[in-house]
Amino acid sequence: MHIQTLTVEQSFASLHTSAAGLTASEARRRLAEFGPNRVEEVRRESMLLRFAREFTHFFAVILWLGAALAFFAEYFEPGQGMARLGVAIVGVILVNGVFSFWQEYKAERAVDALRLLLPQQATLSRDGEVVRKLAGEVVPGDIVLLEEGDFVPADCRVVEALGLRVNTATITGESLPAARSAAPQTESSPLFARNIVLAGTAVVSGQARAVVYATGMRTEFGRIAHLTQTAGAAISPLQREIKRLSRMVAMLASGIGGAFFLVGQALGLPFWENLLFAIGIIVANVPEGLLPTVTLSLALATQRMAKRNALVRHLPAVEALGSITVILSDKTGTLTQNRMSVRRLWLGGRFAAADDIAAQPRLAADHRALFVNAALCHNLKEMGNQGSRTWQGDPMEVALAAMGRQAAGALDGYVRIDEIPFDTDRKRMSVLCETPHGRMLYCKGALETVLEACDFVQLDAMVAPLDGAVKARLLAAQDALAEAGLRVLAFAHGPVDGGLPAEERGLILSGLVGLEDPPRPEVPEAMARCAAAGIRVIMVTGDHPHTALAIAREIGLLKTAQPVVIGGDDLRRLSPAQLQLALDAPEILFARVAAEQKMHLAEALQKKGEIVAVTGDGVNDAPALKVADIGIAMGIAGSDVAREAADLILLDDNFASIVSAVEEGRAVFDNLRKFLTYILSSNIPELVPYLAFVLLRIPLPLTIIQILAVDLGTDMLPALALGAEKPDPDAMLRPPRARSERLLSWGLVARAYLFLGALEAAAAMTVFFFVLDAAGWHYGEPLARTAPLYLEATTACLATIVMMQVINVFLCRHPRRSVFAFSLSGNPLILLGIAAELGLLLFIVYTPTGHWLFGTAPVGAEVWLFAAALAASMGVAEELRKKWLRCQAHAPAACDRTEGT
Predict the structure, then answer these.
(1) What is the C-alpha to C-alpha distance for residues 412 and 436, in angstroms, rounded to an integer?
(2) CA-CA distance, 527 to 520, in Å (whole number)?
(3) CB neighbours (10 Å) of residue 881?
(4) What values do phi and psi take at 174, rounded to 5?
(5) Lower CB density within 10 Å: C or N end of the chain?
(6) pLDDT at residue 897 in the model
(7) Cβ–Cβ < 8 Å for 167, 204
(8) Which residues contact 119 (CB under 8 A, 6 or more apart)?
(9) Max alpha carbon distance in the chain (Å)?
(10) Torsion sign, CA atoms 418, 424, 425, 427
């Protein structure tokens, strides 16, 4: 028999459970029998296929082509060393592919591990106590407690419901929320039965208790998992930029190689020698390590963000953080501590401090209706924890309930029987209770909306009509409390005949309560950092405008005397064009705003060309979080729905963590530019020897295998270390980069190719000729490829390039700041990379295996000293260039400083 057709009692009996839930021992037994409550993920692309992809990207295809040409040349003209070249190129492809795959695999596993920091949980009743458990531990027969913002953890039959509505779009495709109740149904399909809530659906409003009847793959969600999951991932802007850059560089390398092959043919070079030359040109210009460096930079950034309480759900989101221009931020819990405490009340026409309630029993007795209201009108859950009982839920409601229970005393005979849940349109919540005085409706919310439902007001021990004069006093009292930075709520009550009324009317306004929620101490500094970084912060809150203004001024968000304040009603009346114009105000704040309106604000800012981050914690924030360039959910106070919609989750709900995440996002882009500068610099000293070989008709100063030794051997680890640099101190002292800004800028190309690369090429060629000249070689004299002098000269050229790159890795840590501004211990990976680089170089130069693999020979101390002097000269030249740039950018005094800004 279908469970939806059974009564509540029959449902309990069919699952061998009760309203109190399962015992802990029975839950463990059922978990062993039915297995974890987990839906199998869509199968990802097989590891073998993903591994194969690392050898078929555009860079790899170019190298495969080079290897094929080398083997082809060896076949037609053996004995020229082309086979060994082909093997070396294939080795490069294999090493690079394995390394890239390993980095991507580790990055993916790291993100998966970080997600486990915030597993989905469920609130259950077990052994008669309310407990929180991992959703994977839910078993058939469990009693689940649901409230607004929760994801339903399993297929359940509702047994109690108060204003319950669920979004079933993930299962049925129906976008409108559907009401649910506990009454038996005749509908045969659980998809449409009104007493069934299904795994994967979200609670939009209300509360419920439900008994689990199916878990894991036995749920409707499990049966149609392919409709709700996807194995694909969207390509991020950085990924598109890397693909564009890869194709551009590879095509440039191929074009140059092809062009110089034609030049060589025109100059009469032997065909196979010319082919060798063309392959060398191509290999010299392909940045083989680019792809693994991108993955490494993103992965390390996500790990650093997690340490700074920002959990990245999607790896591509890291890069987008660095270009944020506007943050739409909530107030409560993000800018403030979300530690509510009642400070002042307006009772009977006058103000009273919270401490006065306990000291004046008469005051509490005269206004007991307000305190009963505060004690009953909430959505808190009473949790059991090692024998103690605590309230769990909104800190504001916890503070109000604690005040209400203390002042109202015993509440015997008061039973809550129904609810009109809070929503952002009504801005109030009402509960229907059975009391010793008959049925009463208790209501709390924003004063302007509660006033609509009231005809009377409680003044001391009497009830008076709510006329215009009293309304004016109430509004003035609210303003006074709000200007003190307090969050203000109005309370009302009234007798009710029968069930919930269609709308609240004729109630008695019992008073106002002002709650304090102090700003987080670190937020003012975070605001200053945002201002320095060119990031605009706009507060969007449901609170009273005066409260929002007071907090905004306290944290340094607003500094002018007359900022623009737009309320939710005013915002609703603005046309899209008017809203975009209003957002031009230098200081603007949105108060009494519904969560749904955040989405319109984000869209308006995006139309103005801004890159927008939006914070949110409720189920109604999900649309705005999805629309934003970066959606940021709260890890502590956030609902399941909000966290699922977000790109970033704040583990501490703290605005300062957003700023830290932006800093890390900027570092990713900066690090990739450092990496590109470094590897492109070495392309020129690899290219120039081939040009000299063809145009000057000299012995080839650097062989292709030696180029590969530089690109994927000596250069790789230092380059990766640059990709792992921590954020620069001045990262948050410059405006966000534009959407159109390219990773490979003309300034970067000029610095790498025309300055650093040119210096390295000049040094390498100088040392090459230094060795030849010392041995008495004369221009035009042929040298065999196996001649000791030729091997020593090419080795000297190779060693010089590596020595120059050792200095260059320090020069590339910043485009303007002096190398002496950075500590050697600031990035241990750089020192490790240099040690590995020099170790490999010594292996190449001084071991028989290195000689055989790379065609090298030992060089004397004078070569090392000469190369080191030239490397130091490049360091001095770059320091002078940076100093000149600092002089141009700042006051002349900056020219005298070692460290640039």
Answers:
(1) 8
(2) 11
(3) 16
(4) -75, 120
(5) N
(6) 44
(7) yes
(8) 134, 135, 136
(9) 116
(10) positive
Amino acid at 637: A
Q: Tell me how far apart the alpha carbons of residues 290 and 672 are, in angstroms, rounded to a whole number.
A: 9
CA distance 825 to 270: 51
pLDDT of residue 224: 62
Q: Tell me the two tokens of residue 399.
A: 């503070």
Whole-number pLDDT of residue 326? 96
Q: Nearest CA to 177 among 613, 622, 563?
A: 622
For residues 715 and 307, what is the distance between their CA atoms, to the nearest angstrom?
A: 30
HEC string of 137-168 equals: HCCCCCEEEEECCCECCCEEEEEEEEEEEEEC
Q: What CA–CA distance (Å, rounded) separates 276 from 73?
A: 9
Residue found under tokens 């700074």: 308
Contact criterion met (CB below 8 Å) for 549 and 565? yes
pLDDT, tens digit, for every residue of 434-468?
Answer: 999 899 999 999 999 999 999 999 987 689 999 99
Catalytic residue among 142, 150, 155, 330: 330
Residue 275's nearest CA partner among 56, 59, 81, 61 is 81
Q: From the centroid of its chain, how far is CA 470?
A: 49
Quick one: tokens of 100? 């890239």
Q: What is the pLDDT of residues 219-240, one digit of tens each?
A: 887 776 544 343 344 455 666 6
- Token digits of residue 897: 């400083």
Amino acid at residue number 214: A
Burial class (CB within 10 angstroms; exposed 0-12, middle 13-18, buried 19+) of 191: middle
Is the CB of residue 66 less than 8 Å from the CB of residue 258? no
Give burial (CB, 10 Å; 0-12/13-18/19+) of 147.
Answer: buried
Could you tell me which residue, 691 or 760, shows the higher pLDDT?
A: 760
* DSSP alpha helix (H) spans, 267-336: 271-285, 290-307, 317-321
pLDDT at 519 over 50: yes
Q: What is the phi/psi pair of residue 511, to 5°? A: 150, 180
DSSP-derived pairing of the beta strands 326-329 and 536-539: parallel
Crossing angle, helix 290-307 and helix 716-723, to 10 degrees?
A: 40
pLDDT for res 288: 62
Q: Give φ, ψ of 306 to 5 degrees.
A: -60, -35
Of the candidates 517, 351, 353, 544, which has an alpha carbon nearest to the alpha carbon of residue 445? Answer: 544
How many other C-beta atoms can be found within 10 angstroms of the C-beta atom of residue 560?
A: 10
Helix or strand run (H / E) with residue 856: none
330 is annotated as an active-site residue = yes
User: Which positions ≥6 away from 269 have C-beta within 8 Å?
Assistant: 277, 694
Rg over alpha carbons for the chain, rounded to the nearest Å, is 35
- The DSSP secondary-structure symbol of 46 reads P
Answer whether 352's CB lies under 8 Å from 344's CB.
Answer: yes
Distance of CA 586 to the CA centre of its chain: 27
What letter represents residue 156's amino acid? C
The burial of 899, by beta-carbon neighbours within 10 Å (0-12 exposed, 13-18 middle, 19 or more buried), is given as middle
The pair of three-digit structure tokens given for residue 667, joined into one six-digit string: 């570092």
Say whether 793 sits in a helix, a strand or coil. helix
Q: Which tokens go with 445?
A: 């919310």
Q: Are 523 and 655 in contact (CB under 8 A)?
A: yes
Q: What is the DSSP letter of 519?
A: B
* Chain mean pLDDT for the chain: 85
Buried b (16+ CB within 10 A) or exposed e, 660-683: bbbbbbbbbbbbbbbbbbbbbbbb
Task: Write the DSSP symbol of residue 817.
Answer: S
User: pLDDT for 365-411, tens place per residue?
Assistant: 889 999 999 999 998 877 765 556 678 778 888 999 999 999 998 89
| Cα 397 from Cα 727, distance rounded (Å) | 40
Nearest to 443 by CA among 454, 456, 430, 432: 430
- Number of residues that this document lists for the chain: 901
C-beta neighbour count of 262 within 10 angstroms:
11
Task: Give the whole-angstrom CA distance, residue 333 versus residue 596.
Answer: 19
Q: Are 517 and 489 in contact (CB under 8 A)?
A: no
Q: Give the pLDDT score at 460.
A: 73
